[in-house]
What we know:
The chain has a single domain, classed as Alpha/Beta hydrolase fold, catalytic domain (Rossmann fold), CATH 3.40.50.1820. Helices cover 37% and strands 24% of the residues. The protein has helices at residues 50-55, 59-70, 87-91, 98-116, 133-144, 161-169, 198-211, 227-242, and strands at residues 10-18, 23-32, 44-47, 76-80, 126-131, 151-155, 177-183, 189-191, 194-196, 215-221. An eight-stranded mixed beta sheet has the order 1-2-4-3-5-6-7-10, with helices on both faces. It has a two-stranded antiparallel sheet with strand order 8-9. α4 crosses α5 (133-144). 43% of the residues are buried. GO terms for molecular function: hydrolase activity.
Amino acid sequence: MSNNPLFKRTIHKHEVPSYILSEQTRSIRVYLPPGYQPWISYPVVYCQDGEDFFNFGRIATHTQKLILENDWEPYIIVGVDVDKKLRTAEYSPDGDRNERYVKFFAEELVPWMETNYPVRDDPTDRILAGDSLGGTVSLSIALRYPSMFHRIISLSGAFYDVSIEEIKQAHTLSHLHMWMNVGLQENNFSSDRGTFDFVALNRMAKQELTLKGAKIKYIEKDGEHKWGFWQVELPDALGAFLGPTPHRFE
């Protein structure tokens, strides 16, 4: 079985050119599903903190199993790496690199992927995924490019005041479907901005998104602000958009 190319797990690494970020390249990794064929078009999941999603979230391992054993439609995963020293500057809406990062994502990264891989360009087949501030920037990308992105996975999103204000400034979000979760033990989490109740932050974000017409699948359960919690939740999150029986959004 392991020698059959159908079951081979394939991950390619690339350097995507970026003029917007004033860099030569940005590192990404691309997971190709079992049975991948370049003439077939695939849904695509774009992950912030790409290295963490692959190494700690085990997103490729989860996906391989879900496609082979649970009969999911194959899809491609793109992990976009980030320099942890610049993460807040790029991911937070008030970060000094945020505007450029969001523009890079929509105007350089996505076109590069669509030129080099058979990923679908329909906004319902593009999924943004992120943990903590990665969830924040995923929402920012969708808010600023509403014609491109309609699907978001947010794992314990860091929805500080600046993010809530960004939601409030948005026009109708009736096109947006968002899977959100938060751990009940995240009510006293120390971040680089201070100590926050992430349960309260996510409840507020859900409320404001719903007021704008977004469709939300919202989950609270026991869990801490770490990959041990998020990794277990990833199959459910992916299944909301990619599984054989998609979740109902409210």
